[in-house]
Amino acid sequence: MSKGFIHHIELNVSNLNRTVDFWGWFLEEMNYEPFQEWECGKSWRLDDMYIVFVQAETRYLDIPYHRGRVGLNHLAFHAISSHQVDEITRKFRDRGVTILYADKHPFAVGKEHYAVYFEDQDRMKAELVAP
User: Fold this and answer.
1) Pairing of strands 125-129, 74-78
2) Which of 32, 63, 76, 107 to pair with 128, CA 20 to 30 A apart?
């Protein structure tokens, strides 16, 4: 393992069951494998890195997540091709997932950046970008 690689990312969520439903299929499409599971959390692993989703405590649910506040803005995942971006976009639409910047898709930030931007039920933004 090289120094500096991300070991894991842990995200608190408002509803673990909805989060597992949303992120589980996507991460498995990206070749992540289910890794850990316990009453208040679940993770998926890809090689030596993993992503963890943990149910936020009730006392912290009064202020919802917003990517414009201090903290995480978004997660970005590598796609293997523009075809994969298109296929995942189709699957998102079939599942009713919110596609961000739909009017500019797949070039929301310029012609050199082929990607789909989406958000989960907590409005956490993510991106799948082709090489």
Assistant:
1) parallel
2) 63
